[in-house]
């Protein structure tokens, strides 16, 4: 049941009363003790494999990163893990996958080390489709032979090969195999990355999917790949260990499909009865490369028939269709203030934090105790200074009132030397280049 407005209460009292810090059973994945999750974040810190060309494996640094962010009964969603060489796409360098035995063993070590924290750890499975273009080791595929055109997205890109029915079958098989690998490695469940213009999203969007067979040409047909994929993976590992991520209002990787509300509503109608552990949505306001304002005005122009000029597209229609039996995670632009109401009002069950979790390993504690957040360092999201992969990755400290172990003390000392920059309210929502100068590197 939604609870009353708690915003005037002191932080700890608010936390005691709010649903944000109440337990939640996440299907068969596990029991959460609170509703704050680590969003999937690609950080490109894998170790190059010396066994398989073009692959990377997780190592100690991932163990440290996830352990720092783990809490008892807290949900951790892994970075996007490519399911094959082809899935990696040309752009995913230094990204550890989960398709070789070496990668599976690597993740097993990470998961084993994280498990004692009591966190619920889910692996996100990824296929880039057309996003990275062809490589020497594999060709890029997509729903259709439509390339990324915009220079903002690094275009014009390579024209991908349109997937044959055989390709579709094989690719779903790759997802299934990697889902099994993830469960065998000890993950509590898997999430399919169905947003951000990657392969599943390339089937959903009408500007990318130009197929005239059963996988294109209508809303129902464009949904088919995602529905079949979910069914195949869920039946391999159990539907209650399965989650799907969607970005119905995303633009990233040139996803400019029409009839978005209808498309994703119909998809949700198909997913609702399946007993999946959750569906994870990205909020319309968030975009990887556009500022919030630019994103919203572009959405407004594109979707003038879908929502009124005084309102933004919301996730509420999807929540209503999915109902309370399919838990909903939301992500995109949440901070220490706006995260409470969305759970307390019943609009979502769990909030996933991305950027602020990079720079605040003890984010859950900070929210619970009403502490300020530290700014993240955008230039170190995907790259690092030569030989220093820890920078911007595992060198952010806990709040000084929340430092217990010797290791935490050392990280704090180092962090203080560099200078701790506190985030200003609203700062995280704007993503234009202006901020790059503000961020220390
Ligand atoms: C550095 C970075 C890497 C990301 N990698 C992924 C990813 O691997 N998979 C995914 O589904 N989303 C990815 N995202 C999106 C985040 O999961 C999240 O939805 C987004 O950052 C919005 O949440 P925030 O406002 O709390 O940062 C990434 C975002 C960032 C900033």
Structural description of this entry:
The protein has about 450 residues and is of the alpha/beta class. The protein has one domain: Aldolase class I (TIM Barrel). It is built from 14 helices and 14 strands. It has helices at about 10-15, 60-70, 85-90, 100-115, 165-185, 200-205, 220-235, 260-270, 290-300, 315-320, 340-345, 355-360, 365-370, 405-420; strands at about 25, 30, 35-40, 45-50, 55, 75-80, 120-125, 140, 160, 190-195, 240-245, 280, 330, 350-355. The strands form four sheets. Strands 3-6-7-10-11-12-13-14 form an eight-stranded parallel barrel. Helix 2 (about 60-70) packs parallel to helix 4 (about 100-115), helix 5 (about 165-185) packs parallel to helix 7 and helix 7 packs parallel to helix 8 (about 260-270). The longest helix is centred in the middle third of the chain and has 20 residues, at about 165-185. Residues about 430-440 have low confidence and may be disordered. It binds flavin mononucleotide (FMN). Flavin mononucleotide binds near residues 80, 193, 354 and 381.
């Amino acid at each position: 049941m939604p609870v009353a407005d708690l915003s005037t209460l002191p932080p700890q009292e608010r936390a005691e009363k709010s649903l944000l810090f109440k337990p939640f059973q996440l299907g068969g994945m596990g029991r959460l003790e609170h509703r704050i999750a680590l969003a999937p974040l690609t950080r490109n810190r894998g170790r190059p494999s010396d066994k398989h060309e073009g692959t990377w494996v997780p190592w100690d640094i991932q163990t440290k990163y996830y352990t720092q962010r783990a809490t008892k009964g807290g949900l951790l969603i892994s970075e996007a893990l490519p399911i094959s060489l082809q899935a990696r796409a040309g752009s995913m360098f230094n990204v550890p996958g989960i398709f070789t035995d070496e990668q599976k063993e690597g993740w097993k070590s990470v998961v084993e080390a994280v498990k004692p924290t009591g966190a619920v750890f889910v692996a996100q499975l990824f296929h880039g489709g057309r996003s990275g273009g062809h490589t020497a080791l594999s060709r890029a595929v997509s729903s259709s032979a439509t390339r990324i055109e915009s220079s903002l997205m690094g275009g014009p890109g390579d024209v991908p090969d349109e997937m044959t029915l055989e390709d579709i079958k094989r690719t779903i098989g790759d997802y299934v195999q990697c889902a099994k690998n993830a469960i065998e490695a000890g993950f509590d469940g898997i999430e399919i990355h169905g947003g951000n213009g990657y392969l599943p999203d390339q089937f959903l969007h009408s500007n990318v999917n130009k197929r005239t067979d059963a996988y294109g040409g209508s809303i129902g047909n464009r949904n088919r790949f995602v529905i079949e994929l979910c069914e195949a993976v869920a039946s391999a590992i159990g539907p209650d260990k399965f989650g799907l991520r969607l970005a119905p209002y995303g633009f990233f990787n040139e996803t400019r499909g029409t009839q978005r509300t209808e498309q994703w509503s119909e998809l949700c109608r198909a997913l609702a009865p399946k007993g999946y552990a959750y569906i994870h949505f990205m909020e319309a306001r968030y975009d990887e490369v556009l500022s919030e304002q630019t994103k919203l005005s572009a959405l407004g122009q594109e979707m003038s028939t879908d929502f009124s000029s005084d309102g933004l597209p919301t996730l509420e229609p999807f929540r209503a269709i999915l109902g309370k039996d399919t838990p909903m995670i939301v992500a995109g632009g949440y901070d220490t203030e706006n995260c409470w109401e969305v759970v307390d009002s019943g609009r979502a069950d769990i909030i996933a934090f991305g950027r602020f979790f990079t720079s605040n390993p003890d984010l859950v504690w900070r929210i619970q105790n009403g502490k300020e957040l530290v700014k993240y360092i955008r230039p170190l999201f995907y790259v690092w200074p030569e030989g220093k992969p820890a920078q911007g990755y595992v060198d952010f400290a806990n709040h000084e009132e929340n430092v217990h172990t010797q290791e935490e003390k050392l990280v704090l000392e180092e962090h203080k030397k560099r200078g701790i920059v506190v985030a200003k309210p609203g700062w995280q929502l704007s993503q234009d280049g202006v901020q790059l100068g503000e961020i220390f590197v």
